[in-house]
Amino acid sequence: MTNPEAQQQARQSVSDAEPQAESHDRSGETRFGETRPQGPWSEDSRSGDAGPGDAGSSGDAGSGDAADAGDARAQEEAQAAERLERAVRAAEQALIEFEIAVETFRVEVENFSRLHHQRLGPMYSRLDELDALIAEAVAARTGDPEDIRKAQEARGLVQPMPGVEELFHGWIDSEGLSPEAAAMLTERPVQPPPRVRPSEEARRIYRELARKAHPDLAEEEAERERRGAFIVRVNAAYAAGDEEALRALAEEWEAGPPPPERRASRSEELYARLEWLAERKEMLAAVAAELESSAIGAMIKMAPEDPDRLLDEIAEQLLAQAAEKETRLAELMR
């Protein structure tokens, strides 16, 4: 399923890029700190060995060394970014291969599950029906309450009760029964929603915010969108008559827009991309493990080259079980 070579390449690229990036930072700082311009107040000039002309030459040389160190550091940073870029590309390719493998197996499981249901579903239903008939025949013979209970349970497997979602489809949401459903079940009239009348203070704050934050007052599109989203919140608070929420919105508006976020460097973007790729791979690995541990997935793993043959073997076993149960039922019906 997976592509071990591509994943190993991604991990190796990341491991190569990170230590080298850290080492170039430390080495660059050390060289930059060791470079000191030799001016007229240096040790050599105070000793009297160098004249005014020599002191000036020494200062120029020191400045050149600092510039060279800065150039070297920039070059190393660029090289580290290139290595990190290669690591990201390798991880992306490995993830693509892994995702293709997982999706391919998911489709295999889905198709095999459908085929399994089409070919073996009627046989499973027949076995359930035979179990119910046998249990009912035993209960009719003995009249024992326990046998009657078992017969009822067996029949329930053949004719399962509808689920709650089927019984109350459209009546139940995340908050429970809807008002209409509750009214129908309790035979009470549906209560209309309470009417909201905002206070005078809420109206004042609302009008003030509407004047200050209206989107038409903005010249730039981004600011217009920010104001539009803010006015939506203001309208919702006013419609609910929530004076406290309106006060909080007024304070938020007075505080001004949030400061712009610092733009991430290229290295930061690449590291963030690597983290996302790793999280995505973990998610896909969990999906793959779930597929492999499922009943259908286990069947495919038992006969990956010829799953149809496995279905034929299971069908033969089910037919044999059905024959045994029919014989047992015939004995009970005598």
From TrEMBL:
It comes from the Bacteria. Residues 1-15 have a biased composition (Polar residues). Residues 1-80 are annotated as: Disordered. Residues 21-34, 70-80 have a biased composition (Basic and acidic residues). InterPro entries: J_dom_sf (IPR036869). Residues 50-62 have a biased composition (Gly residues). This is J domain-containing protein. It comes from Streptomyces antimycoticus.
